[in-house]
Amino acid sequence: MAKKISSTKKQNSPVSLASYIDHTLLKPDATAEAIDALCREAVQHNFASVCVNPVYVAQAVKNMADSGIPVAAVVGFPLGANSSEIKAAETRDVVAQGAREIDMVINVGALKNGDYQRVFRDIEAVVRAAQNYPVKVILETALLTEDQKITACVLAKAAGAAFVKTSTGFGPAGATVEDIKLMRRIVGPNMGIKASGGIRDAATARAMIDAGATRLGASASVAIVKG
């Protein structure tokens, strides 16, 4: 049974921010040793999850065993340009290895082409393959107009995703307070929103939460929780 993710939490001290953070390492040159360190930090600070590339899911799952902290895996990352069939297969693979959250990238080109049915089916394919584990849909907001951001949020919600997420961290810009407010207005009070990209200190993290984010993606997680 999938772990239910609450969309509302209280935010107080810098340390309390840890419960919002997906402790993330997605760099192409990430080593096995760096993944081990990521997992140790996640346990030490009790982050919401560790988020890794598919190749490191099994290692992260082993490291996080008995910690109560789930492993999240990225799918179709970072471009979102894989076919829906490949994204679904990748999702099934990481779930089989123990990933319990999926962060997928939408087909940005299809969205900008106005091919909304294709975008919907792409998200839906991953949601189905995730076997009821939560899917976070990465919009790559820096590449979209306001109308496209709105449309992407509507499509992600309709396809059954648990979260909409701002950015991969590999695009031209990351999360903004304005985008989080817009996304919250469109998806309503109950869907998760993940702010990701460019969050490197506690003040920025708090601003995202105040704007409506219920999860934060960060690689500077330890610095954030230390204030």
Task: Summarize the structure in short.
The chain has 227 residues and is α/β, with parallel strands linked by helices. 42% of the residues lie in helices and 15% in strands.
Shape: globular
Helix percentage:
40-55%
Query: Structural class from helices and strands?
Result: alpha/beta
Average residue-wise pLDDT: 94
CATH architecture: Alpha-Beta Barrel
Number of domains: 1
The largest sheet has its strands arranged as 1-2-3-4-5-6-7-8
> How would a crystallographer describe the biggest sheet?
8 strands, parallel, barrel
How far is it from the N-terminal to the C-terminal residue, by CA? 35 Å
Which regions contain 5 or more consecutive residues with pLDDT less than 50?
1-12
What's the SSE pattern? Answer: EHEHEHEHHEHEHEHEH
CATH superfamily: Aldolase class I
CATH topology: TIM Barrel
Q: What is the gyration radius calculated from CA atoms?
A: 16 Å
CATH class value? Alpha Beta
Please tally the β strands and state the result. Answer: 8
Please tally the helical runs, counting DSSP H or I stretches of 4 or more residues: 9
Proportion of beta-strand residues: 15-25%
